[in-house]
Amino acid sequence: MEIVRPEPETLRQISHHGSVGLTAQALLRTGSVAMTVLRVAPGGEIGDHPALRDQTLLITEGAGQVRSGDGPWHDVIAGDAVRWAAGESHTTRSAPGLTAVAVEVA
């Protein structure tokens, strides 16, 4: 067993792809799996970008909206999981703020 407790210095502010109010903190990185805690501040957005690998976003707190490409927005709440295939363009936004765990698998 291993307990992972992220260090504060691993917390990063992210502004790539026009992201606003986004912080990321790595939990796990191996050759085939990456797990990252993402926090979207109220009114924040994870800008449109392609998934580098198959990705699942598990909403753990709050609520928001997600979409693929230029498609329609879909509401998500804590407990929902959203999956995107590698290469699929996607965006996440939140009026009240949200916390999620992104799991990427090669």
From TrEMBL:
Write down the InterPro entries for this protein, in alphabetical order.
Cupin_2 (IPR013096), RmlC-like_jellyroll (IPR014710), RmlC_Cupin_sf (IPR011051)
- What are the alphabetically sorted keywords of the record? Dioxygenase, Oxidoreductase
The keyword Oxidoreductase belongs to this UniProt entry's keyword annotation: yes
- Which ranges carry the Cupin type-2 domain? 38-94
A molecular function (GO) held by this record is: dioxygenase activity
**Which Gene3D superfamilies has this protein been placed in?**
Jelly Rolls
List the Pfam families hit by this protein, alphabetically: Cupin_2
- Identification of the protein by name: Quercetin dioxygenase-like cupin family protein
